[in-house]
Amino acid sequence: MQEHVLSTSRTARYFTLGHPTDATELWFVCHGYGQLASRFLERFRALESPRRCIVAPEGLSRFYLTEHPTERRVGASWMTREDRLHEIDDYVRYLDAVHAQVASGKARVTALGFSQGTATACRWAAFGSARIDRLIVWGGEVPPDLDLGDTRVKERLSALRLTLVYGTDDAFFSTKVVAATTARLKASGIAYEQVQFDGGHEIHEATLRSVT
User: Fold this and answer.
1) CB distance 193 to 160 below 8 Å
2) CA separation, residue 73 to residues 57, 63, 94, 99, 175 (Å)
3) CA–CA gap between residue 44 and residue 7 (Å, rounded)
4) What is the pLDDT of residues 33-77, one digit of tens each?
5) Label partner for 32 (CA 20 to 30 A): which of 42, 49, 114, 167?
6) What confidence tens digit (pLDDT) does each residue in 6-30 have?
7) Mind listing the pLDDT tens digit for each residue in 98-155?
8) Rounded to an integer, what distance in angstroms lies between the CA atom of residue 32 and that of residue 29?
9) Distance CA 28, CA 134 (A)
């Protein structure tokens, strides 16, 4: 048996709040595992502003969350461990394409990743061609396999404002994971700020407002 790989185009979708042509701020928000972009974007209505456009791309892989015969809810994923490197390449190119379609070049760009989307946003910031001014890692971590000692990765992450956000009761992004993430950043000399809130694995509205 031989494995073969080819590239093929496919249709992807993204959702927006606001108008990119009028915006001085562009936010790209990457959802977590099993979420859909439209529902995730609802969490960001608190940030609606005439000068801000919020863009929610949807992961390229969709699947049924349940097999209940009368309610087969659908979610999306950015990647799995199967053929992961190609999936990473695919979503980095995809996010670059979304950015190219909506960004005017004048707006300040923030990339926010939540849960599984934190790894997506981090890799996009590190490997993509889009200019990103700020990276918010919310309820997740800078992926352990991202080599912070690599010159290009370090330069890209050092050039932006990096914010780590987590809830004190987050069952997934524990204090142990926080400590491991911050230790890696410190060892690599990458500056960051850390924000915590009383809550769990969620987009906390008051905290979201505070980091704008």
Assistant:
1) no
2) 19, 9, 25, 29, 32
3) 34
4) 999 999 999 999 999 999 999 999 999 999 888 877 677 888 999
5) 49
6) 888 889 999 999 999 889 999 999 9
7) 999 999 778 999 999 999 999 999 999 999 999 999 999 999 999 999 999 999 999 9
8) 10
9) 10
Phi-psi region of 130 (alpha: psi -120 to 50; beta: other; left: phi over 0): beta
Distance, in Å, from the CA atom of 47 to the CA atom of 13, rounded to the nearest integer, reads: 21
Structure tokens at 151: 């010159």
Residue at token pair 């915006």: 23
Q: Are 17 and 53 in contact (CB under 8 A)?
A: yes
The answer for 169, left when phi > 0, alpha when psi is -120 to 50, beta otherwise, is: alpha
The pair of three-digit structure tokens given for residue 169, joined into one six-digit string: 């009761």
- State the angle between helix axes of 151-158 and 116-127 in degrees (0 to 180), rounded to the nearest 10: 100
Token pair 């069952």 is found at 171
* pLDDT tens per residue, range 148-206: 999 999 999 999 999 999 999 998 888 888 999 999 999 999 999 999 999 999 999 99
Of 139, 156, 134, the closest CA to residue 52 belongs to: 134
Q: Which CATH superfamily is domain 14-210 in?
A: Alpha/Beta hydrolase fold, catalytic domain (3.40.50.1820)
